[in-house]
Write a structure and sequence with these properties.
The chain is of the alpha/beta class. The chain has a single domain, classed as Phosphopantoate/pantothenate synthetase (Rossmann fold, 3-Layer(aba) Sandwich). It has 10 helices and 7 strands. The protein has helices at residues 11-25, 31-46, 53-67, 78-83, 85-95, 108-120, 165-173, 188-192, 201-213, 224-245, and strands at residues 72-76, 98-101, 134-136, 146-148, 157-159, 177-181, 195-197. The strands form 2 sheets. A 5-stranded parallel beta sheet has the order 2-1-5-6-7, with helices on both faces. α3 packs across α9. The radius of gyration is 17 Å and the shape is globular. The structure holds adenosine-5'-triphosphate and magnesium ion. Adenosine-5'-triphosphate is lined by residues 36-37, 39-40, 43, 162, 164-165, 181-184, 187-189, 200-201.
Length: 246
């Protein structure tokens, strides 16, 4: 691990980056995953690297939706597994959700590495590994559309963090409710999901676990478009503040 002084002003962000790099070295993260993380870092910078009030509202709405789902599934990719393996298991337990490994850049090696870290963190059942129960989603090109029959395919609510827009749109067309973590409020995934948590997944997953652990969740009048607008304005305000001080 690179030497990062504890007093570094962006210590957390650098520690998260180290986790991704380690995940890449351990075959969890794809090269493209590192690039996606870089995009996320840029937006995190613009958002002030903290959880906003609007993200907290989205987290509350997400906990309510997951707890009230018939068949909720947490979709796991390399970045998500590298950044928050323990929280994935905790969230699945508190919300009674299934866990499915679903990769944009799928290789057997990466699937194995992700399964290993999830099992080490306490996962019992992991979907998306058995070819016999795989099925194709319509509305998306071949390699990217394979999902598990008993998982995402039959789910009513799917949590897809750090997801590509094409896949989110395909899931939405299959009439699923979509929750995502995405630091870019302008991405297609952010704009397509029913609930977009515009925050770093490492911060927001911890809060979502805490919220889901509570006995009851409030059914707020959540509006994703309004919430996204607030995030975009947050970036604008931060930029204006910086410009004033420049
Ligand atoms: P889209 O396909 O939705 O238009 P994109 O092609 O720019 O977006 P993808 O690589 O498909 O990006 O999706 C990854 C998304 O995850 C990006 O929007 C990126 O900002 C976001 N992201 C990356 N790292 C994190 C993180 N740690 N926490 C939250 N979001 C993140
Ligand atoms: Mg994309």
């Amino acid at each position: 691990m690179a030497l990062i002084p504890k007093s570094h002003p962006r210590l957390n962000s650098l520690l998260i980056r180290e986790k991704l790099v380690k995940g890449f070295d351990n075959n969890l993260v794809a090269k493209e995953g590192l690039l996606a993380h870089g995009r996320g870092e840029a937006f995190d910078y613009l958002l002030g690297e903290k959880t906003s009030k609007s993200a907290k509202e989205a987290i509350k709405a997400a906990a309510f939706m997951l707890k009230n789902a018939q068949n909720s599934v947490i979709s796991v990719n390399g970045n998500f597994a590298a950044l928050c393996p323990k929280e994935i298991i905790q969230l699945a337990n508190y919300t009674n959700s299934k866990i499915e490994v679903n990769l944009f850049y799928s290789t057997e090696k990466r699937k194995k590495a992700i399964t290993k870290i999830l099992k080490k963190s306490g996962a019992k059942e992991i979907l998306g590994l058995n070819e016999k129960s795989s099925i194709k989603l319509s509305g998306i090109d071949s390699a990217r559309r394979i999902v598990d029959k008993n998982g995402i395919f039959s789910a009513d609510v799917v949590l897809v963090p750090l997801e590509d827009g094409d896949r989110t749109i395909a899931l939405k067309k299959s009439k699923k409710k979509i929750i995502t973590f995405d630091l870019n409020p302008l991405s297609r995934t952010a704009q397509t999901a029913d609930i977009t948590i515009v925050d770093n997944v490492t911060r927001a997953m911890k809060l979502l676990v805490v919220e889901s652990k509570k006995k009851t969740q409030k059914n707020s009048k959540y509006n994703n478009n309004k919430n996204l607008k607030v995030s975009i304005l947050e970036i604008k305000k931060n930029l204006e503040r910086q410009a004033k001080n420049a």
